[in-house]
Design goal:
Elements (H helix, E strand, L loop, with lengths): L1 E6 L2 E6 L3 E5 L8 E4 L2 E5 L4 E3 L7 E12 L3 E7 L4 E7 L2 E12 L2 E4 L20
Antiparallel strand pairs: 1-2, 1-5, 3-10, 4-7, 5-6, 7-10, 8-9, 10-11
């Protein structure tokens, strides 16, 4: 089950348990966020295309973290004029984990992440000769 959502002026194809980086959103890490602008929905059997949006389909996610990208430098130089300009920019972003896509009676929930098991300290049994 997947959906195409629109947020921050861009479109993203998402499925349950996907992690996406989008334009900054309001809210703290761990907060739930709902995306209402669903443009396309597919469940493996049929695909619904909105004109332009679909109703009755919701995509829910959880904010993982907020951050800023690396600095981008815009450098302008006019030769032989002793004129230079250097400007920097860092774009804010939000990382979101998609937890659920629901459409009418159907729902695709992300399974809880399992903790990784530590490797056992026992050595592998040696083959007897």
């Amino acid at each position: 089950m997947f959906a195409v959502i629109k947020t921050g002026g861009k479109q993203y194809r998402v499925a349950a348990n996907d992690v996406i980086t989008i334009a900054t959103l309001e809210g703290e890490a761990g907060a739930s966020v709902t995306f209402g602008d669903v443009l396309l929905f597919g469940d493996g059997e049929a695909t619904q295309v909105g004109t332009p949006l679909l109703s009755g389909i919701g995509v829910t996610g959880e904010i993982v973290q907020h951050g800023r990208t690396r600095k981008v430098i815009a450098f302008k130089k006019r030769r032989r004029q002793n004129s230079r300009r250097r400007r920097g920019h860092r774009q804010d972003f939000t990382v979101v984990r998609i937890t659920e896509i629901s459409a009418g009676g159907k729902s695709s929930k992300a399974e809880p992440r399992k903790a990784k098991k530590a490797a056992s300290a026992e050595p592998a049994p040696a083959a007897a000769e």
